[in-house]
Amino acid sequence: MTMSMPLPRIASILPKPVNREAFVERLRLTGVALGQALLFVPALLLGILSLLAVPLTLVVVGLGLAHLAVPATEQLTRLHRWIAGQLLGEEIPTGYADTTGTNPVTRAAVWLRDKARWRDFAFLWFSVTGGFVLSMVVVGLLTTPVVYLIGTIVDLSWAWVLLLCLSGPLLMVWWLVTPALVRARALAERGILGHSRVEQLERRVEEVATSRSQALDHSAAEVRRIERDLHDGAQARIAAVGMNVGLAEKLMSTDPAAAAELLKEARETTVSALEDLRSVVRGIHPPVLADRGLAGAIEALTLAIPMPVTLALALDDDLPAPVESAAYFAVTECLTNIVKHADASRAWVSGTHHGSLIRLVVGDDGRGGADPTGSGFAGVARRLQAFDGTMTLTSPLRGPTVVTMELPCPQGSSSARTRPSSEPD
Fold first, then answer.
1. H or E element: which one contains 5?
2. What is the helix (H) or strand (E) element at residue 360, kind and residue range?
3. Which residues of 139-170 are buried (b: 16+ CB within 10 A; e: fewer)?
4. What's the distance, CA 216 to chain centroid?
5. Which of 6, 210, 239, 348 is the most buried if burial means most Cβ atoms within 10 Å?
6. In sequence order, what are the residues at sequence separation of 6 or more whose Cβ sits closer than 8 angstroms to the Cβ of residue 422?
7. Do 250 and 290 form a contact (C-beta atoms < 8 A)?
8. Rounded to the nearest 10 degrees, how much is the dihedral formed by the CA atoms of 301, 306, 311, 313?
9. For 191, what's the count of Cα atoms within 13 Å in the CB-facing half-sphere?
């Protein structure tokens, strides 16, 4: 949700003297407080629904209430996080547990174990108690004198005049305490809706443990693949070469022509075995990466794509080999998915290196609707997670599909290249 104008940062208005700008900012803060107070109503309704859903989770009614209350609470707290973040000049993260691939029952179980969801639940009751009071004090300090002024104008009597005079000091109190009260609520919301350093570390440890396990599984699968490729390919061909050479030795004196034919066959088999070995090596670390770097390797890769692929690459030539290889194979998998499933007429790849982060974006103008849990994208995510990287997929129906990948990496020198892959060198 966005607002028509940015909220004022509270810290920036505290030292200002009484002037028009500070008055306008306090009026805006009062408007924010009024909006927060009005959100008391949905917070109360969601709080009651959540209270009913927790004990009834084991029955269908409880699951239905949970699937109504929890997503709605997430949207409400998202709005409050945005407001508090704007006021404090920082972002308040959510930290919800991942529910990708869950069904309604298992999703509810994840919600019950998720500390972030319980913080949302606690916030609902803060919003209808202490938060409501803080906001209404700000609103009341301003509106009370205004109401008495209107009453005096409508009915000029001694009672209204007395009330107006008595409420005059409230305006001074409003001027002094409004920034502090609005900030107090913002800090309280950050404390409730944010997550502590300990929780961040716990979540990070879980992510690292999961990433390490997936990386080990992937490495074991790669080792088995290499063993299988060597056994079924190069090893079998080299064994055949040995047998042919042995037979040729025996036939040299009795049948030179047959021996020559066997030696010719052995030479051809040797060439095939060498090609098998090269194929295995390409699967481990493509030679083009060592020869041309990541940008050059991606350029060479797109030459084989049967559609126009636009490149915009500003990547270092001296990236660490493991990171370079992970990025190359991630882009390869994305382009393969485009060719197989996207039904696209064109694609694009961009890459930048800012600070200690490599950012790669692969997109197409295809039909969209790509599944992030599919084997292809799931493999890309696992490959990147092994290097503390991330993958974000955006693929609405009818496209476009955009995959954004980020990998931590030290910065070196960069050279930009921007041209369609179909153009000649």
1. none
2. strand 357-364
3. bebbebbeebeebbeeeeeeebeebbeebeeb
4. 23
5. 348
6. 308, 309
7. no
8. -10
9. 8
Measure the CA–CA gap between 10 and 33, rounded to whole angstroms. 13
- Whether the model clears a pTM of 0.90, i.e. scores above it, the answer is no
C-alpha to C-alpha distance for 171 and 327, rounded to whole angstroms: 61
* Residue pLDDT tens, the chain, 425 long: 444 456 655 644 444 556 778 888 888 999 999 999 999 999 999 999 998 887 776 667 888 888 899 999 999 999 999 999 889 888 888 878 888 778 888 888 888 888 889 999 999 999 999 999 999 998 888 887 776 666 667 666 666 666 667 666 778 888 888 899 999 999 999 989 886 555 556 666 666 666 566 555 555 666 666 667 666 666 777 777 778 778 877 777 788 888 788 777 877 777 777 776 666 655 556 677 777 888 888 888 888 888 899 999 888 777 777 788 888 888 988 888 888 888 889 999 999 888 788 899 999 998 888 887 776 788 788 778 777 788 888 888 887 899 999 988 755 444 444 444 444 44
Q: What is the set of domains in the chain, with CATH numbers?
A: 10-195 (no CATH), 217-284 (1.20.5), 288-420 (3.30.565.10)
DSSP 174-237: HHHHHHHHHHHHHHHHHHHHS--HHHHHHHHHHHHHHHHHHHHHHHHHHHHHHHHHIIIIIIHH
For residue 345, give both structure tokens. Answer: 């007429």
How far apart (Å, rounded) are the C-alpha atoms in residues 105 and 108? 5
Closest to 29 in 3D by CA, of 108, 141, 164, 151: 141
CA triple 415-405-336, angle to 5 deg: 95
Q: Strand pairing partners for 403?
A: 362, 393
Q: Kindly list the distances between the CA atom of residue 210 and the CA atoms of 137, 203, 379, in Å, as whole numbers in the listed order.
A: 48, 11, 14
Q: Could you give the CA distance from residue 266 to residue 242 in angstroms, rounded to a whole number?
A: 8
Residue 150 has φ and ψ, to the nearest 5°, of: -60, -40
43-56 CB burial, b ≥16 within 10 A, e <16: bbebbebbeebeee
Give the span between the Cα atoms of 24 and 42, in whole angstroms: 29
* C-alpha span between 300 and 314 (Å, rounded): 16
